[in-house]
# Entry
Amino acid sequence: MPNLTVSRHFVQAALEGAERLGFDTHEMLKDAGISPDLLRIDMARVSSDQFSRLMQLLWQRLDDEFMGFGPRRARSGTFATMCALVIDCPTLEAVYRQAYQFSRLFEPMVTMELETGGDKARLVTRMEGEIHDPGYFLRESILVIWHRLGSWLIGQPVELTKAEFAYPRPAHGDEYRHIFHCPLAFDSDRTALTFDKRFLSAPVIRDKSEMRQFLKTSPADLLSRPDESNTFTGKIRALIGRDFSKPLPDFEWIAAELHTSPQTLRRRLKQENTSFQEIKDLLRRDMAIYYLGRPELPINDIASKVGFTEPSTFHRAFKKWTGVTPGAYRDGERGNLSD
# Structure
């Protein structure tokens, strides 16, 4: 089953620390099943499986969970040790307080601190020392990992009301809409995530055996495969399904299935920084990329599989999504891209 895809930007940004330290990132890409040729396509995307493998390779080969971006190394096993500590916490608030106490044992400190006030809770990034993070990858990763770990532990997504960044909007800022599903603020005085305080009292529902299973692929999977099952975006994706060869359900039917009015659903999608049309387009794009990775499928067959009656319309749409034709994209995946 095809997963969501990850922008080429994050693949290249993830490797910047390893490159600075002199590691062979070409070899890492190949070992993760990513053709270096593909990254020559500006708008290329990789599967979440490939990205997850790349993250695991980076942590293993550098023996550094900060991937060469931090003020010091975070040896392999640091995240797992923190998880072993927080699994015994009764609530999400206790998880975040305990995780902060653990992280501040290391100097310089790279962590997130929980602040509360009124009915709001905020996770604020605390970074000491000099970081080497030109693509903001370390800062993004820490936000995402702490947020998604907390959501996983309580078995429900911690719905964000705001994401702030103490840096200008980066060139890849549009990707943030699909990562945080909430209003974004750049050039802020802090890098932080804000959510409703009620989530802090949610009980931790995972146990140690679930945590052991979770750690086999985490935190790589937290970065590459968000659990969006409880966002409206995720629910709509599930209702649309993967079969685009038959007519797609319309918006009114989807709203009825989600027990809400079309107006309310439109408003909720706007809060999640997306729209029904965009959800359909991105699903089609990700399906097309998945099928292009299967060399036995002719491109015209892929066009009909992702819901295009005319191959020419598919070619135009695919070029809009990725900047290149399906054929050129397939050549990039195979490493056959000509100059």
